[in-house]
Amino acid sequence: MTVTPPTAGAETPRRSLRSFRSSRGRETWAGLGMVAPAALLLTLFLIVPVVLAFTLSFTNARLISPNPPRFVGVDNFIRAFTADPLFVQSIGNTAIFALIVVPVQAGLGLALAVLVNRKLRGTTFFRVVFFIPVVTSIVVVSILWKFLYQDDGLINSMIDAVTFGLWSGNDWLNDPSTALGAIIVMSIWQAVGFHMIIWLSGLQTIPEELYEAARMDGASPWRQFTNVTWPGLRPTMVFVLVTITIAALGLFVQIDVMTQGGPQGATSTVVYHAVRKGFGQQEIGYAAAISLIFFVAVLIIALIQRRITREKD
């Protein structure tokens, strides 16, 4: 029997195939290596906490306890709505905060963006001034405003000076009727510069030719805004509303630094209540249930916002 040696023409495709497989394998391993850090972080800080919170929400687990956790079904969820008035009050405070902050902060940010978008001298200076609170730590801002809101603080001194002593102001953070409003004002002031920058980037994507055409047609500044500026800002508007809503619903730092949920629960929010129950009172199972309720509420609001904006598109 004779053996026919492989020809040079048959070796060439095999070498090319091995070379292709080897190159493709290297690319695959390189891709997996680049994805691995992000996948590991997402698993550790997102997937594992969500699964753990979902599991603990159906137990009576405590943070430090010699007794093992016991399955209690939906008792934690029933307790939140029927036997925990502070949780219900926290839902109301969070809703009030979001309903006021979202439109006011978005509107002020848009107004400031329109002002600093004009080609006038000194606009760069005002952009920096309006943006400075954003780059300042929210903890530092909260501490400063806590001093301003004191009974003998700067705000009451200014009110006393302007009214010539007829009204001496109020102890803003220790009065249940004014504490949440004081935090709303501070929160709007601190974050409005960030949304001004977002609106400003949207304004600068609108072609100048559209404004020239509108002016040639005799459109007033208000007509230019409603017919040219606002339609061009629709994608920016969606981003701004979503980011403000998520930030407003997750209100925590200002409450923790300035009032600790008081006075009389007037400034307690859902996130602050969950943290206080979980780490302050060590009821980690009940805190997980509150967190799960909060997650479902935020998901529903996000879906509603997405639905509304998609219909407008």
From TrEMBL:
<feature type="transmembrane region" description="Helical">
    <location>
        <begin position="179"/>
        <end position="200"/>
    </location>
</feature>
<keyword id="KW-0813">Transport</keyword>
<dbReference type="Pfam" id="PF00528">
    <property type="entry name" value="BPD_transp_1"/>
</dbReference>
<feature type="transmembrane region" description="Helical">
    <location>
        <begin position="237"/>
        <end position="255"/>
    </location>
</feature>
<feature type="transmembrane region" description="Helical">
    <location>
        <begin position="128"/>
        <end position="148"/>
    </location>
</feature>
<feature type="transmembrane region" description="Helical">
    <location>
        <begin position="95"/>
        <end position="116"/>
    </location>
</feature>
<feature type="transmembrane region" description="Helical">
    <location>
        <begin position="29"/>
        <end position="56"/>
    </location>
</feature>
<keyword id="KW-1133">Transmembrane helix</keyword>
<dbReference type="InterPro" id="IPR051393">
    <property type="entry name" value="ABC_transporter_permease"/>
</dbReference>
<keyword id="KW-1003">Cell membrane</keyword>
<keyword id="KW-0812">Transmembrane</keyword>
<feature type="region of interest" description="Disordered">
    <location>
        <begin position="1"/>
        <end position="22"/>
    </location>
</feature>
<feature type="transmembrane region" description="Helical">
    <location>
        <begin position="284"/>
        <end position="304"/>
    </location>
</feature>
<protein>
    <submittedName>
        <fullName>Sugar ABC transporter permease</fullName>
    </submittedName>
</protein>
<feature type="domain" description="ABC transmembrane type-1">
    <location>
        <begin position="91"/>
        <end position="305"/>
    </location>
</feature>
<keyword id="KW-0472">Membrane</keyword>
<dbReference type="InterPro" id="IPR000515">
    <property type="entry name" value="MetI-like"/>
</dbReference>
<comment type="similarity">
    <text>Belongs to the binding-protein-dependent transport system permease family.</text>
</comment>
<dbReference type="InterPro" id="IPR035906">
    <property type="entry name" value="MetI-like_sf"/>
</dbReference>
